[in-house]
Amino acid sequence: MIINGDYLIGENSFFMQANSVGIYELIYSPLAIGRSRGSIAFINEHLGEIWYDLSLGCEDQPPVRLPVLRTELGKVEQHRIVLENPSDKEVKVVAKIVNQTNFDVVPENIVLKPYDAVAAFIRYMPSNLDVTETGEITFSTNEIGKWKYLVFGVGIPPTKFETRVVSVGLNKDYSSTIHFKNPFKEAISVTILMDA
Predict the structure, then answer these.
(1) C-alpha–C-alpha distance, residues 31 and 43, integer Å
(2) Same-domain pairing of 53 and 76
(3) For the CA atoms of the chain, what is the radius of gyration?
(4) pTM of the model
């Protein structure tokens, strides 16, 4: 058995019973986009040689369309995805985000160890009510290609946020900060009511 070509994986020997038909499995597992040629030869001292020329091609994976995320204004919803490294090298992944207003990726710095997988989270933060907001996120590497995701989110009206308790001792002064983020793309007026 002789195998020629990049990214071709197969057994070095193949056994068949007399007067039978067998299936040999040759795996093409490319790590780079492009076209190339390969070959495989079955060699037997009694039957001779059988050669196959192979035309090999690798294209970008089609984008993955993720389900629509629905979350309240001011809150965050997310998808969990898994990025796998089938190579024997450590790989750095760079995330490119179209529509950074509504989507981000956690963690920001992703490194895939050889033959390992890492979970990443695509997060959605709405900036509109009842409007489908879209984005595209591409995870790129120099060694093993890229993954592309089409993402969608819809903002829904907010409910009450969790109660925050501020405590202080008698006859003492104390201050505390409550962070509030405007989720809309335009300025808003906020009314603050205090009950004593």
Answers:
(1) 29
(2) no
(3) 28
(4) 0.70
Q: What is the pLDDT of residue 176?
A: 79
Question: Could you write out the DSSP letters of every residue in the chain?
Answer: -EEESTTEE--S-----TT-------EE--SSSEEEEEEEEEEETTTEEEEEEEEEEE-PPPPEEPPPEEEETT--EEEEEEEE--SSS-EEEEEEEE-TTTEEEESSSEEEPTT-EEEEEEEE---SSS-EEEEEEEEE-SSS-EEEEEEEEEEE---PPPP------TT------------SSS----------
Model pLDDT for residues 94-120, shown as the tens digit of each residue: 999 999 999 999 999 999 999 899 999
Specify if 29 maps to a domain: yes
Residue 26 lies in a domain: yes
Contacts with 40 (C-beta within 8 Å, 6 or more apart), sequence order: 1, 2, 3, 4, 8, 10, 26, 51, 52, 54
Extract the residue ranges of the chain whose pLDDT is less than 50: none
State the pLDDT at residue 164: 78
Domain of 34, in residue numbers = 2-58
Is 163 among the domain residues? no
